[in-house]
């Protein structure tokens, strides 16, 4: 645990411990570890995950090595205990652990101190350390400086320190008996212990022969202002039919369709206990009103019926582009420059140059965003404001962002980071066949009007530097976790003039239609349409802890 780039575990594998697994929370470090394992031809498994929720089943391992970068790094006082209880769960009866923690006695005697080190001959790392007796934490300030230019990072972090007595007590509370202490680095306590588990602890799992799943769609009986007609048209019904045909080919499933929203609550109440969970495919929202998209999972929560996809809170946060932007900025993720426009405002201070794009501050499906939403001067800007307000209403807020000229990217995630998930091949919009007189945007026309000039826009595999692709992969997974998405989502980015990726929005419960972006990405991953839908279902089932099917 805390395997970093795999140095320790690969060395163990070379010594004959071939059934080894490494766990770390950093996707970047794990990618390097996998490369090293492949080069060494060692069959080591590396998993990304939080040590407080280890992505392995009960009673799997004989031994666990917990490196010193694991315990002590959690803000909550119970974090370390939770880690050890998880280790207890995944160890076999009488399984053993070797634990490293930082020594309180050594740091009390030697701090404060400051030291430096070189990194790759290009960076100087300065660390200043002090001890906080109130919290029993070692506080470190780390400054990384590029010798040719500037300060790269200036950050603080803290780690809890232990005495022999306190770590022994912690292990005892988690169900371990100490075997002994061992020589290690001067500032580290190294301790071995044995699990007091005497019997298999995994709960009995009875496989099911069939999974019964309710499916909630939008309701054909009502209008839908997002759609071009604006009704629940033949295209929507056709997409649903293709989806159902593909899902009915998945072995072991029985599906019950729910699309009469007038009786939805009553229908769900009657089905409670007869269905395993609900596949929530109603991104149209309750009664086909996208403002009420979160009401579907809220109803399911009140009825205590499990379901796929995002929670009401996640949908609410992600529907508000300003909140999303603020969270991204807080996480250090670049976004386009933007200005929030309150309803009723008639004068505007735009502190960045044209061109700009005007969009509703809330909502999805590119509703009210058209080719005329991109403005290159003030006349076009005021026209765009008027057009968007006419579509969404004059009591709705707007967002004005700088128009980014670079590649338009989509990142698809299926699963639940940081434990078990895949990042599908990243796609970018291909605007090469689009008239040069039109702005390069994947807006309403591209998504809903195939006969428009934007019908030529298509998604193709992204052809970008590996560092750029890795950046958007890593931060898409972090956004997925931070915003509490579940099972699947799509994250949209665009490059600025310097090639820097800037986050545009995150789409939980993104469209799963046969012609949607997520399937375009899945297809480039060698998946059929049914494979993709099955992967979403399996992600939800794993998260819900449902028993396997025979």
Structure commentary:
The structure is a single chain. With 550 residues, the protein is α+β, with helices and mostly antiparallel strands. The chain has four domains: 7-100 and 168-195, Rossmann fold; 106-160, N-terminal domain of TfIIb, CATH 2.20.25; 211-308, Rossmann fold (3-Layer(aba) Sandwich); 317-544, ATP-grasp fold, B domain (D-amino Acid Aminotransferase, Chain A, domain 1, 2-Layer Sandwich). The chain contains 15 helices and 23 strands. Strands 18, 19, 20, 21, 22 and 23 form a six-stranded antiparallel beta sheet that branches. A four-stranded mixed beta sheet has the order 3-4-10-9. The chain has a four-stranded antiparallel beta sheet with strand order 5-6-7-8. Strand 22 and strand 23 form a beta hairpin. The longest helix is centred in the C-terminal third of the chain and has 17 residues, at 466-482. It is globular, with a radius of gyration of 26 Å. The mean pLDDT is 89.
């Amino acid at each position: 645990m805390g395997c970093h780039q795999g140095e320790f575990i690969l060395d163990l594998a070379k010594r004959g411990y071939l059934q080894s697994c490494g766990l770390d929370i950093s996707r970047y470090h794990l990618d390097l570890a996998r490369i090293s394992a492949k080069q060494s031809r060692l069959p080591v498994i590396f998993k990304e995950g939080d040590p407080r929720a280890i992505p392995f089943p009960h009673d799997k391992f004989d031994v666990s090595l917990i490196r010193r970068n694991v315990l002590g790094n959690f803000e909550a006082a119970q974090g370390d205990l939770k880690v050890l209880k998880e280790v207890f769960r995944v160890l076999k009866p009488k399984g053993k652990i070797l634990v490293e923690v930082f020594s309180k006695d050594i740091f009390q005697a030697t701090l404060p101190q400051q030291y430096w080190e070189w990194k790759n001959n290009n960076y100087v790392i300065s660390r200043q350390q002090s001890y906080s007796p109130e919290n029993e934490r070692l506080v470190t300030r780390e400054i990384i400086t590029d010798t040719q230019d500037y300060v790269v990072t200036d950050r603080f972090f803290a780690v809890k320190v232990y005495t022999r007595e306190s770590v022994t007590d912690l292990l005892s509370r988690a169900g371990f008996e100490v075997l002994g202490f061992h020589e290690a680095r001067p500032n580290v306590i190294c301790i071995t212990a044995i699990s007091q588990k005497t019997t298999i602890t995994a709960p009995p799992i009875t496989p099911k022969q069939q999974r019964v799943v309710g499916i909630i769609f939008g309701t054909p009986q009502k209008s839908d202002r997002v759609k071009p007609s604006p009704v629940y048209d033949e295209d929507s019904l056709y997409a649903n039919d293709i989806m159902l045909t593909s899902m009915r080919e998945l072995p072991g499933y029985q599906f019950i369709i729910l699309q009469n929203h007038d009786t939805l609550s009553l229908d769900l109440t009657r089905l409670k206990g007869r269905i395993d969970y609900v596949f929530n495919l109603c991104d149209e929202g309750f009664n086909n009103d996208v403002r009420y998209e979160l009401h579907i999972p809220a109803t399911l929560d009140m009825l205590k019926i499990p379901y796929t996809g995002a929670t009401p809170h996640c949908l609410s946060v992600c529907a508000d582009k300003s909140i999303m932007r603020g969270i991204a900025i807080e996480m250090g993720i670049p976004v386009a420059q933007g200005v929030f426009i309150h309803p009723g405002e008639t004068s505007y201070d735009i502190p960045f140059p044209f061109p700009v794009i005007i969009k509703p501050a809330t909502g999805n499906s590119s509703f009210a965003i058209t080719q005329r939403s991109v403005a290159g001067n003030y006349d076009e800007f005021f026209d765009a404001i008027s057009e968007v307000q006419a579509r969404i209403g004059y009591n709705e807020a707007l967002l004005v962002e700088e128009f980014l000229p670079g590649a338009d990217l989509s990142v698809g995630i299926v699963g639940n980071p940081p434990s078990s998930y895949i990042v599908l091949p990243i796609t970018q919009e291909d605007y090469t066949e689009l008239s040069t007189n039109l702005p390069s945007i994947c807006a309403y026309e591209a998504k809903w009007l195939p006969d428009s000039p934007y019908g030529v826009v298509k998604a193709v595999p992204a052809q970008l530097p590996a560092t750029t692709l890795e950046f958007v992969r890593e931060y898409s997974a972090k956004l997925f976790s931070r915003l509490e998405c579940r099972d699947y989502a799509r994250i949209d980015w665009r490059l600025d003039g310097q090639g820097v990726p800037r986050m545009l929005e995150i789409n939980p419960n993104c469209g799963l239609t046969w012609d949607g972006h997520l399937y375009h990405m899945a297809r480039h991953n060698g998946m059929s349409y049914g494979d993709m839908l099955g992967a979403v279902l399996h992600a939800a089932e794993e998260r819900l802890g449902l028993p396997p099917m025979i």
